[in-house]
Design a protein that fits this description.
Layout: E1 2-11, E2 15-22, E3 27-33, H1 37-58, H2 66-81, H3 83-98, H4 102-107, E4 112-113, E5 116-121, E6 125-129, E7 133-134, H5 149-167, E8 169-170, E9 179-182, E10 193-195, E11 202-203, H6 206-220, H7 224-232, H8 243-255
Parallel strand pairs: 4-10
Antiparallel strand pairs: 1-2, 2-3, 3-6, 5-6, 7-9, 8-11, 9-10
Helix pairs in contact: 1-2, 6-7, 7-8
């Protein structure tokens, strides 16, 4: 039985999170689906679908990929609505991380993933382990000892690459609200990444991600031309546009992307820590 309901730890359009204490003194976290969230999301998608249909019928714009994109987003939102799915993903990723080979752990330290409760998991709520941690926003930007925003950002990128390459797993929604630093006496001098909110993760064969990875690596090295050509190989070209016109359009868009934490005129070498400054 729940002995006490603690303070609200966070809330969003889909869920609200509380800290709770059981009769045995155990501290846990309960996630509850926000009232009306399912109906609200369904209604918003209905409006978007009608908007896309009207735009296509009027001939004002061409939305070739819009229906498919909407279906992908709907699938992600539906996954977050069902906490049974999130608990299964958390347990599965915990198993995958623990089974990684030793060389992978040397390249990137294993993150900490909250453990879902073995009993209290349902469609509209779940209870999981309370992890003592610090929010990304509360961390210093730099630090010699202990976690900082730079270190957690770097660990987040490293973990994302490990998941893609070793586990063929894609987490499409990593952000500063669900990537924390583990806290405690050891956490004051050592940086350990905590993964929270894995509801949108999905199995994704690596061959589908290779073009994005090549484009991203090319862009991170400053090679906009190569990055644009990699992206061009996986996009559908409008019939009224030439390949060179599409390539120029992609290059123009990529040139507008700010580098991660880099100011105009600031140099950034391949091994520089500036690569990992959060945008």
């Amino acid at each position: 039985m729940i002995e006490a309901l603690g303070p609200e730890l966070g809330s969003g359009s889909i869920k609200v999170v509380y800290k709770i204490e059981f009769e045995d003194g155990g501290i846990w976290v309960v996630k509850i689906r926000t009232p009306g969230a399912y109906y609200k999301s369904q209604r918003e998608f209905e409006i978007l679908e009608k908007l896309v249909s009207k735009l296509e019928a009027s001939g004002d714009i061409k939305t070739q990929g819009a229906p498919g994109l909407l279906e992908e987003v709907k699938a992600l939102v539906r996954a977050e609505m069902d906490f049974r799915d999130e608990a299964q993903k958390e347990s599965g990723l915990r198993d995958k991380v623990s089974a990684r080979p030793r060389y992978a752990r040397l390249l990137a330290p294993a993150p900490y993933i909250a453990r879902p409760h073995s009993v209290y998991v349902a469609e509209d709520f779940m209870i999981e382990e309370f992890v003592r941690s610090r929010r990304f926003a509360d961390l210093p930007r730099r630090s010699l000892l202990g976690p900082s925003q730079r270190k957690i950002a770097r660990l987040t990128v490293q973990e994302g690459m490990q998941e893609i390459i070793l586990d063929e797993w894609l987490e499409p929604d990593p952000h500063t609200g669900n990537r924390y630093a583990k806290w405690g006496w050891l956490g004051r001098v050592w940086s350990k990444l905590v993964l929270l909110d894995l509801g949108q993760g999905m199995k994704w064969p690596i061959f589908k991600l290779r073009p994005f990875m090549r484009a991203g690596l090319a862009l991170s090295s400053g090679n906009i031309e190569k990055s644009a050509r990699e992206l061009l190989s996986i996009v559908d070209m409008p019939k009224d546009k030439t390949q060179e016109e599409i390539l120029d359009s992609i290059k123009s868009g990529l040139s507008q992307i700010p580098q991660l934490g880099r100011h105009p005129g600031e140099s950034r070498g391949p091994g520089s820590e500036e690569n990992w400054i959060p945008a």
